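Ticket reopened. Same input as before:
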Amino acid sequence: MSDTTVTARKRGGAGAARRAERTSVKIETARFIERNIPNFDLLSSEALEIIETNAETILEEIGVNFVNNPSALALWKDAGADVQGERVHIPRGLARKLCATAPSRIKQYARNPEKTVEIGGNSLVCAPVYGPPFVRDLAGGRRYATIADFQKFVKLGYMSKWLHHSGGTVCEPTDVAVNKRHLDMLLAHMTLSDKPFMGSVTEPSRAQDSVDMCGILFGEDFVQNNTVMTSLININSPMTFDDVMMGALEVYARNNQACVVSPFIVGGAMAPVSVAGTLTQVLAEVLAGISYSQLIRPGAPVIFGTFVTSIDMNSGAPTFGTPEASQILYGAGQLARRMGLPYRSGGGLCGSKMPYAQAAYESANTLQAALMGGVNFMLHSCGWLEGGLVSSFEKFVMDADQLGILHHIAKGVQIDENAQAMGAIREVGPGGHYLGCDHTQTNFKSAFWRTEILDYKPFETWQEEGARDTVTLAAERVEKMINTYQKPAIDPAVEEALTDYVTRKKASFPDSFT
Amino acid sequence: MSDTTVTARKRGGAGAARRAERTSVKIETARFIERNIPNFDLLSSEALEIIETNAETILEEIGVNFVNNPSALALWKDAGADVQGERVHIPRGLARKLCATAPSRIKQYARNPEKTVEIGGNSLVCAPVYGPPFVRDLAGGRRYATIADFQKFVKLGYMSKWLHHSGGTVCEPTDVAVNKRHLDMLLAHMTLSDKPFMGSVTEPSRAQDSVDMCGILFGEDFVQNNTVMTSLININSPMTFDDVMMGALEVYARNNQACVVSPFIVGGAMAPVSVAGTLTQVLAEVLAGISYSQLIRPGAPVIFGTFVTSIDMNSGAPTFGTPEASQILYGAGQLARRMGLPYRSGGGLCGSKMPYAQAAYESANTLQAALMGGVNFMLHSCGWLEGGLVSSFEKFVMDADQLGILHHIAKGVQIDENAQAMGAIREVGPGGHYLGCDHTQTNFKSAFWRTEILDYKPFETWQEEGARDTVTLAAERVEKMINTYQKPAIDPAVEEALTDYVTRKKASFPDSFT
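Engineering reply: fixed in the latest deploy. New output:
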């Protein structure tokens, strides 16, 4: 299918679409991962049952706060919860029952149907870094992010083969008013890429803008009947659901759009220092949040989210790539699967200030755990630096390259006759070598994953070429990608309508930078 | 127990040992890992059975070569193999039957009994890099390794908390004659560290020297009745067993000392490009090698080894941290467990020329796989650089720091009342924070793994302190460790006897540098 099918079908603008398509370059994007390998189940069933029982105890006896949200409290009361002030006590079993209407797998449409993804089951969808106010690159150092940086990240995401999703706030465009930047961000995702993306959550009205703009891009009926956004709803751990995030969730749930309901936890600060205690709190929070989404609209698509890092007790800094974070990732994945819900966690997380070895150790530890731990939606797959304060251009392409490894491991091991290679082993025999044999010649192109960045050259060549480090090689790749970027085809009428919407909206109220 | 118990008991030199001990600093070494987590089983039983059947076909129909080794051929013939020239055809089932006498778990004694390790079952023993002719550090760059470098690595290994084993050829001391350097290496391991170590394999006579020196260190009877060395016997893949390696294996097997029997494979060159094909060849080779060890001495301790990397078809270079290498690691682990044998694989392997991000991505990928894949003995756990051509001082301490992560993940998740932390969750409640609560104060010191190298400081502090990269931080740690190094206590009479042995041996024949 062409990458303009959806819009062309809807508007009858097939001619314009075809013209646009003819001039575009096809960018290769890997299909989202469908694991052909088992998940790694770290915790025993007994341990999981204890955690589940304790999570129900939290909901019933301690309760959760829904802040500044009278209509939420009313909904909870109607559903059978014991509401005292803003505290909601959820009777044992009720939350799990409410969660049962949430789908186990979500199909999120991209405007290019080839790039539509499915989140749930054995899938793994990779999305880029989300949220940093700063950007960094070798040339410009660390600085506040701008909308130009944002657009550059969207372009890199579009061109990254192993990245399935364009993400959301790949960096905060701080040069655009706080109350308007979501419009520019959405426009960038919709026009500079054709991969699926995320909506705004910083105000319910901005969530509504996201839905309205999707109506232009996909058609309003299509949006009401299909999921075209996956947005990030963080819980203020411990056990607090604020009105801004819940307001956004309400908009998305009513419009059939997916939300990641995600405790945001620095272990030792927002949750107990123990893994089991943190998992218990995570489960209680997710049960409450997802129940609430189902109270808004039974069947609303949601994802069991877990963002957990631990605190360094010496410095107070969040730490990444740690064993405790991996244990929580594995455990939460098991809890999500027992609920039959899609699972979000992982990412190329690191505390490192620069894309040095520390960043790579920390990121690789988490990327591996995310693959093995059954993550379905991986935000921060690439580009995350300095504990999420910085989006790094070089790290974006470095991590994105590593995502190829996850794709290849997830394929599992082929065992057909060609893969058994008995003919080759017979042909070569003891003391021989395989480089020239038929089997090698036939298979070598697809046999091994190959990096697009890392250095595999002989030592002498590497030295002659300037002994470049990984960051330098990555910077060269960023430049090459940006220089060859071509915008994906889009129906000009759709693009114009989107631009009009953004222009009109931005003119309709004054700028605010708070 | 004191770290001189073994030698003191044997020689009655308790007074001297106690004096030596009083002046020594106790260095903390973690006990070898005993996994409290499941292994990751990548391949299905059906796939493993096909591979096992095919491996038997290789042994029977293609055969393996035992080169320049008439006595090996005679042993094989006696055992029922069809020997044609140097080619040994092993009837289906024979090799597996011969392997059955090999123990499933090996206790390798250290001269400090607290550092004795067990290899097999759920254990993971970490040993450092093995074999590089070059060393590298920030101050001195890349250069040929010397015995001084070797001694420095042994000291670092002795002081590395998460490293259980002193290893073998941590680098090649190229300033010592090829035919004598094993003596200096053994002396360094025996006197500068008190952790378990490996013997020489480069000539059968040097294996005998290793056994004889162990006789001085542990007592001859002790050595005959216990395993005090684990040595590395590489197979010349495909399917070739040379007389030097087999000669060393013969010495060790006869003396009850452990050998890792390890195909050394660059996939696409020494094995088929497919994972299943490579696993089949690996299994055939290990079956033949371990069978042979059992023909020498039934019950000889051996380890199922797998060193596999894949070739980059563009440059011909070996590559590390790749998905195919991980798949082979996982699959070979399953094959080893089905044979009930201890398993060697993994390590902080990388192709990177420097300890930059590339090195860390590649190393972390393999370290994680080794933990999850059930490796029992991990050579190259730390310090490996540039495809094994270089031992890096900085990467040694960087990787050794990461080994702490494996220890913490392997512990599994505690689920006792303290770990459940329900009291803390109750005490803190919605909207609170955990930093000050009793549970956090009681548990924070042991709750999280903490790096000894990586930077967790606030951005501003990091910048003010010179924005140091990971390699610089690692170089500082190397210097600090070496400056505070203190030799572990040893009975002076034993040390003198070892030194005498080395001096005498070295004087007894001329130097050779080939």
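Residues 1-12 of chain B have pLDDT under 50 and may be disordered. The radius of gyration of chain B is 24 Å. Please confirm and we'll close it.
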